[in-house]
Amino acid sequence: MAEAAVPDTSGLAEAITDPHAEFTKERFEVELEFLQCLANPWYINIIAQQGYFDKPEFINYLNYLQYWKKPEYVKFVVYPHALAFLDLLQTKEFREEIKK
Which value, in Å, is the radius of gyration of the alpha carbons in the chain? Predict the structure, then answer.
């Protein structure tokens, strides 16, 4: 049986304890967890049907999450296809189609 890959968290402690760090540990974890939920197309469909993609503030939040593609953050992403879905969610056409 193959072992599950464990992400490299070597830079996490420094990023969280740095007084100039942009994120708190809790915010980091919540945003990472939400991003990884986007790896599930059924989850995306559910939030689409609930009208989240009709809210400009939610679309802005999806755009904000693009920072996870930066090398210092991407190493924490366990499901990299979540980033592909995040890219797709930047387009109105995809957001409309996923509602169906």
Answer: 15
Both structure tokens of 86: 């995040």
Question: What is the signed CA dihedral for 6, 7, 11, 14, rounded to 10 degrees?
Answer: -70
Quickly count: other Cβ atoms within 10 Å of residue 80's Cβ: 11
pTM of structure: 0.75
Span 1-34, pLDDT tens digits: 455 455 555 555 555 556 556 558 888 999 999 9
Question: CB of 47 within 8 A of CB of 99?
Answer: no
- Sequence length of the chain is 100
CA distance 5 to 7: 6
